[in-house]
Amino acid sequence: MSKSSKKLYTQHFQTRFFAPQYWGIWLGIGLLRLLALVPFRWKFAIGKILGKLLYRLSPRRRRLALANLKLCFPEKSATDIQRLLTQHFESLGISLMEMTIVWWGDHKTNHQNAFERKLVTFIGEDNLRNAQQQGKGVLILAPHFTTLELTGLFVSFLTNYHAVYRPHDNPLMDYLIAKGRSIEFSNGEQVEPVSNANTRQMLKVLRAGHSMTFLPDQRYRAKGHVEVPFFGVKAKSNPATSKIAKMTGCAVVPTFTRRLENGHYEVEFLPALTDFPSGDDYQDTLRLHHLYEAEIVRNPSQYLWVHNRWNLKDY
Predict the structure, then answer these.
(1) Whole-model pTM?
(2) CA atoms within 13 A on the CB side of 59
(3) Is residue 312 part of a domain?
């Protein structure tokens, strides 16, 4: 999609965004913009401090994350769960600093030689390339880890792609998120996020043989959901991955991003799923859940535990 193409996200800048009701958002964005100027070597340390503040200031989210962790890791001691909870909030704080990189980083003006290219190592890059060579489009599955903001940026260093996102309920936040996640690739092509409600555009992208990132793992209560165990507990889930693959014939490549202790990242592309879709949405979703579970067990603090995935009532 060229710069002159019609935007695919829903919100555009409006003069009403200057109204007092949005001043709190502008203040928060202003603070993040200032933090974007901080040298990268300080970003992890500052992010952990922000995470500790979030831990103190968000008791409801803290209780939800704690309940989720207890649900998924019943074998862990109370001490281990508490340690994991603390680490998770530090990870959330770091994700805010990572957002400043995605929204205002060097890649925005220098994608070809961006500083951020030095931060990542790719594993299984051939799995992505082989899937793309089939020519039927590639659905890059990227579950909700706290590294999610950077996943899209890192993938853009390998290939042009379209990102699917859920529009924010607040129109200013929706505008800012979509604008921040827009990427101008090295060839001058600018690709903007596609709303997850724009099914026609999503199918069009894949049928044209292009790649698209997709976030399939959050709670889904709409018509057509399937209840499938996730960490052994039934969870209302979205079978869209199977349905999209069936309608387009695209390859499905699970992708995981990991934040390492040395300030580096790795992005792993698993082989494209074989015999997918199987024709059974339940079994397909269960298969995906098992892949997510394996990665979460490997890297538990970086999964998004503050989301009410299991629709818990009391926490």
Answers:
(1) 0.90
(2) 0
(3) no
Reference 65, options 87, 47, 50; nearest CA is 87
Range of the domain at 171: 15-302
- Inside any domain, residue 5: no
For the CA atoms of the chain, what is the radius of gyration?
19
Tally of CB atoms within 10 A around 225: 17
Q: Residue 301: which of 260, 270, 264 has the closest Cα?
A: 260
pLDDT at 3 over 90: no
Would you say residue 186 has pLDDT above 80?
no
Answer yes or no: is 8 within a domain. no
Q: Which residue's structure tokens are 């300030």? A: 263
Question: Could you tell me if 216 and 238 are in contact, meaning their C-beta atoms sit under 8 angstroms apart?
Answer: yes
- List pLDDT tens digits, range 81-107: 999 999 999 999 999 999 999 999 999
The answer to the question of residue 9 being in a domain is no
Q: How many domains does the chain have?
A: 1
Residue-wise DSSP of 128-185: HHHHHTTSS-EEEE---BTTHHHHHHHHHTT---EEEEPPPSSHHHHHHHHHHH-EE-
Percent pLDDT > 90 in the chain is 76
Mean pLDDT value across residues 144-164: 93
DSSP-derived 3-state class of residue 226 = strand
